[in-house]
Design a protein that fits this description.
- Pfam families: DUF1330.
- This is DUF1330 domain-containing protein.
- By secondary structure, the protein is of the alpha+beta class.
- The protein has four helices and four strands, in the order E-H-E-E-H-H-E-H.
- Strands 2-3-1-4 form a four-stranded antiparallel β-sheet.
- Helix 1 packs antiparallel against helix 3.
Length: about 120
């Protein structure tokens, strides 16, 4: 089942050469774990609520690969290039399994709500 690392980056960041180096080096850290950018600070449209931050989303084959990438020496080596200059929130979330049916989730919720 796929997994995703999602970052919400605050726009108050001051651009710095370290950020450019981080962006140059991060794709090489994905390769051993099957990761790839799905979204990388592209323009977005707010459909509900507010969202002023930038979005980065990286896809991996599974949670294990995503966690292994996050904990890898190669990635941890470049983390300070980002973290010294960009604030934000980063989460790891598993995707839904193949054939996921939201109506079954809704049915389970209805049963739960019945008490």
């Amino acid at each position: 089942m796929s997994a995703y690392v999602i970052a919400r980056l605050h726009k108050a960041a001051k651009l710095h050469p370290d950020i450019a180096e981080y962006i140059e080096r991060i794709p090489g850290t994905f390769e051993p774990y099957g990761g790839r950018f799905l979204v990388h600070v592209t323009p977005h449209e707010v459909l509900e609520g507010s969202w002023d931050e930038d979005v980065v989303m990286i896809g991996f084959p599974g949670v294990e690969e995503a966690r292994a990438w996050w904990e890898s020496d190669a990635y941890q080596e470049i983390v300070p290039l980002r973290s010294r200059h960009l604030d934000g929130d980063i989460i790891l979330v598993p995707g839904v399994p193949e054939g996921y049916d939201a109506t079954k989730t809704a049915a389970g919720l209805r049963e739960f709500l019945k008490g």
